[in-house]
Write a structure and sequence with these properties.
- This protein has about 350 residues and is an alpha/beta fold.
- Helix content is about 40%, strand content about 15%.
- The protein is built from 14 helices and 13 strands.
- A seven-stranded mixed sheet has the order 2-8-7-6-5-3-4, with helices on both faces. A four-stranded antiparallel sheet has the order 9-10-13-12. It has a two-stranded parallel sheet with strand order 1-11.
- Strand 3, helix 5 and strand 4 form a beta-alpha-beta unit.
- The radius of gyration is 21 Å and the shape is globular.
Length: about 350
C-alpha cells in the first residue's frame, strides 16, 4: 500500500486543505519535555495502584453514564462550581469546538493567544477577528471593547492567564467587557492552578460569561478532561451539539478517584511548580541575551535578543531538550521561545544548555 502523502481529495473542504492543524511533536526517548506545559511530577505509585483497582472493575461492555452525573457532582465540589452549570468535554478543545459550532457569527480574539482557537474556528468554518495586544502583552480593554462593539462578534474568547504570554487579565476590565457586550464571552482559565485568580465570581451577574477549566495542567493531561462553567441555559444548548458518551468510562472513573481521594496532592504539586517558577525566572534573567516575560502560569515566554529561536530550539533538541518555538505565531512573538517549568534538575539542565548555546550568538 502506498504510504506517501498524495493530493487531498477534491471533496474535502478547501478550508481544511488550507489548514495546517495543530502540530504535536513526538518526544525522543529520554527527552526533557519543556514544550507542552505539562505537570512534570507523575502521580505516586499508590495513586496508580488505586486507579488500577477501580478501573479493573468497570463493565466495559456497557456505555458509560452519558451525563457523567457523579463526576459533575465531585468536580463541582473541588472546583467550587454549581453542578447544573457544568459541561464536560474530552479535553478543553472539544468544548471549544462545541461552542464554536453553536454560535453563528465571528469570533473575536486578543492575540497572540492559544493557537488552537484559530484551528478550531477553521474546522467550524468560523470567521476570526484578531485584536492585537500591546507590546508588553497586556490588553487595552477600552479599545478591545470598542472593537467588540464595532465588529459585533457572536463570541469573544480570552485566556486568563494567557498562553503563550503568561500574562493575566484584570477583573474590573473583564467586568467592563461583560457590561458592554451581550454576546457570548468565554474566559479560558486553563492555567488557573498557577495564578490562583479566577473570574468565576462574575458569572452570578453575567449569564453570558463562560469559564473554561481543565485537569490537564493540574497533572492529568492524559485523561483529557475539560470543564466548562456556564449558565444552565447555555449548557442545555451545548448538550445538543455534544457527542453522546463523549466522556468514556475509564476517564470518568479515573477523574472521580483522583478528585475524591487525591485532589490535595494535585494542589500540592502546583505549589511546588509555583515555587520552581520563581527561581526559574531569576535564573533566566541572569543569562545574557534572554528576556523572560514574568508569568502567572507554569511556563515562560522567553525573548532571545541575539539568537534565532528556531536555531536555538533545534540545538536544544540535539541535546534532547524540548521547548516550543512560537516566534512565527504572531508578529509580537518575534524572537520568542516558550518554556515549561520542569523539575529542578530539568530546569538546571535547560538553563545550562541555553546559556552555552547562546554564547555562540553573542
Amino acid at each position: 500500500m502506498n504510504t506517501l502523502p498524495s493530493a487531498p481529495p477534491p471533496w474535502i473542504r478547501k478550508e481544511i486543505k488550507a489548514s495546517r492543524g495543530y502540530p504535536v511533536e513526538r518526544a525522543p526517548e529520554g527527552a526533557i519535555r519543556l514544550d507542552a506545559m505539562e505537570n512534570p511530577f507523575d502521580l505516586p505509585p499508590l495513586v496508580h495502584q488505586r486507579l488500577g483497582e477501580e478501573i479493573a472493575t468497570l463493565p466495559l461492555n456497557r456505555y458509560p453514564d452519558g451525563e457523567a452525573r457523579e463526576l459533575k457532582q465531585v468536580l463541582g465540589s473541588v472546583l467550587e462550581m454549581q453542578e447544573d452549570c457544568i459541561f464536560l468535554g474530552n479535553g478543553s478543545d472539544e468544548i471549544l469546538l462545541n461552542i464554536f459550532l453553536s454560535t453563528p457569527g465571528p469570533i473575536l480574539l486578543a492575540e497572540p493567544t492559544f493557537s488552537m482557537y484559530r484551528v478550531l474556528a477553521q474546522i467550524a468554518d468560523r470567521k476570526v477577528i484578531g485584536f492585537p495586544m500591546s507590546h508588553d502583552f497586556t490588553l487595552d480593554m477600552k479599545k478591545f471593547i470598542d472593537a467588540a462593539v464595532s465588529e459585533s462578534p457572536s463570541l469573544i474568547v480570552l485566556s486568563h492567564p494567557n498562553n503563550p504570554t503568561g500574562v493575566g487579565l484584570n477583573l474590573r476590565d473583564v467586568q467592563g467587557l461583560c457590561e458592554s457586550f451581550s454576546g457570548g464571552i468565554l474566559i479560558d482559565e486553563a492555567y488557573y492552578p498557577f495564578s490562583r485568580d479566577t473570574l468565576l465570581p462574575l458569572q452570578k451577574d453575567f449569564p453570558n460569561l463562560m469559564i473554561l477549566r481543565t485537569l490537564s495542567k493540574l497533572g492529568l493531561a492524559g485523561l483529557r478532561m475539560g470543564i466548562l462553567s456556564a449558565d444552565p441555559s447555555i449548557v442545555q444548548e451545548l448538550n445538543k451539539v455534544r457527542l453522546p458518551y463523549n466522556m468514556d468510562a475509564v476517564t470518568q472513573k479515573a477523574a472521580l478517584v483522583i478528585c475524591k481521594e487525591f485532589f490535595p496532592l494535585l494542589l500540592e504539586q502546583t505549589g511546588w511548580i509555583i515555587r520552581l517558577r520563581e527561581s526559574f525566572l531569576a535564573d533566566l534573567k541572569r543569562i545574557p541575551g534572554v528576556v523572560p516575560i514574568p508569568s502567572r502560569t507554569n511556563f515562560f515566554l522567553v525573548r532571545l535578543t541575539k539568537a534565532n529561536p528556531s536555531i536555538v530550539q533545534s540545538l536544544l533538541l540535539d541535546e534532547k531538550i524540548l521547548v516550543r518555538d512560537v516566534s512565527g505565531h504572531h508578529p509580537l512573538l518575534s524572537g520568542c521561545l516558550r518554556v515549561t517549568v520542569g523539575k529542578k534538575e530539568e530546569n538546571a539542565l535547560f538553563l545550562s544548555a541555553l546559556e552555552r548555546i547562546l554564547k555562540g550568538f553573542l
